[in-house]
Amino acid sequence: MRGQIITRSGDRLLVEIRDKILRCAQRKKLPPLTVGDWVTVEQDSASTNEGVITELEERSTLLSRPDPFNQRRKPIASNIDQLLLVTASEPGIDQLQIDRIIVAAEASSIPLSIVINKVDLLSQDQRNSLKDKLKHYQEIGYPLIWISTLMSKDGEDDIEQLKQQLDGRCSVLVGPSGGGKSSIIKTLLPDGAESNKIAVGELARSIKQGKHTTSVSTLYHLNGYSEETSIIDSPGVREFGVWDLDENTIRGGFREFDLYLDQCRFSNCRHLSEPGCAVSKAVDNGEISTNRLESYRGLLEE
């Protein structure tokens, strides 16, 4: 039977197969599996809700993170169309965290948009200031979506823009704790996503550690959208370390540098403090954000 993994915790997985959900283990010959994977399952018997995953289909995309206990990267989610980086407008936005996730997205060739949540907490002046602070992301190709899970009177921060971005795609919500991912999911799933809530509960009981289920990734289907519209809620920004990535891969997360790379005096310029660095000059000229260069240098040190 063909199904999709909707939740994983430890070595236990939940696989959705049409209108039923099976608790599954995986064959040892398979690589580590993750939420979003399409798999083949052998059910133990028609009277049980357990099975064994025997095959993994080829993944279209894979989001992963470094594993401190293993040289291989650990998968977070697969077969996804976009990353939605959710961060709250207050108490403040950490652009290093944003840039760390951008590097992870670019390393996985996954499009990314930035969702600024809780903008209802800002005055108009504060909102304008924040838009000016973050506009460079829009300028280099990362859409900014301004929302509040509360209904907006003027429509500017209405969640409808986010709904349009989600439609027809499998999206992963990532970002620091406190960004409002849970509130967004509750708003998008007014019926409470009962099938998924039951699934997570079943998984918790099966592994006897329900108190940890909020730290696992979970896939939710969205009703009222185009077919195949779904979201994956993933753990926080701490998952996206870049310490195992090489320097070229990290630099790939700073696409605005590309225009200047061949203009540096030295071909091996690292854009740190070398004389004749065209990237540093572009920052001085206001062509590249100072914060972005600082993030790049900070990530190289991780």
Characterization of this structure:
There is one protein chain. The protein has helices spanning 95-107, 124-139, 160-166, 181-188, 194-207, 247-251, 278-284, 290-300, and strands spanning 2-9, 12-17, 20-26, 38-43, 50-56, 62-66, 73-78, 82-88, 112-117, 144-146, 170-174, 218-221, 230-233. It has 302 residues and is of the alpha/beta class. It folds into three domains: 2-60, Nucleic acid-binding proteins (OB fold (Dihydrolipoamide Acetyltransferase, E2P)); 64-69 and 74-239, Rossmann fold (3-Layer(aba) Sandwich); 247-300, Ribonucleotide Reductase Protein R1, domain 1, CATH 1.10.40. The longest helix has 16 residues, at 124-139. It starts with a strand and ends with a helix.
Write the layout of secondary structure elements.
Elements: E1 2-9, E2 12-17, E3 20-26, E4 38-43, E5 50-56, E6 62-66, E7 73-78, E8 82-88, H1 95-107, E9 112-117, H2 124-139, E10 144-146, H3 160-166, E11 170-174, H4 181-188, H5 194-207, E12 218-221, E13 230-233, H6 247-251, H7 278-284, H8 290-300
Parallel strand pairs: 3-5, 8-9, 8-11, 9-10, 11-13
Antiparallel strand pairs: 1-2, 1-4, 2-3, 4-5, 6-7, 12-13
Helix pairs in contact: 1-8
Overall pLDDT metric: 85
Low-pLDDT runs of 5+ residues are 207-214
Identify the CATH class of the largest domain: Alpha Beta
Computed CA radius of gyration, to the nearest angstrom:
21 Å
Instruction: Write the H/E string, N to C.
Output: EEEEEEEEHEHEHEHHEEHHH
Fourth-tier CATH superfamily name of the largest domain: P-loop containing nucleotide triphosphate hydrolases
Q: For the report, how would you describe the main beta sheet?
A: 6 strands, mixed
Q: Enumerate the strands of the largest sheet in spatial order, edge to edge or round the barrel.
A: 10-9-8-11-13-12
| Beta-strand residue percentage | 15-25%
The total of helices stands at 8
Structural class: alpha/beta
Principal-axis shape: globular
How many domains is the backbone divided into? 3
Total strands: 13
Ends apart, CA distance between termini: 43 Å
Secondary structure: helix percent: 25-40%
What fold name stands as the CATH topology of the largest domain? Rossmann fold
CATH architecture of the largest domain: 3-Layer(aba) Sandwich
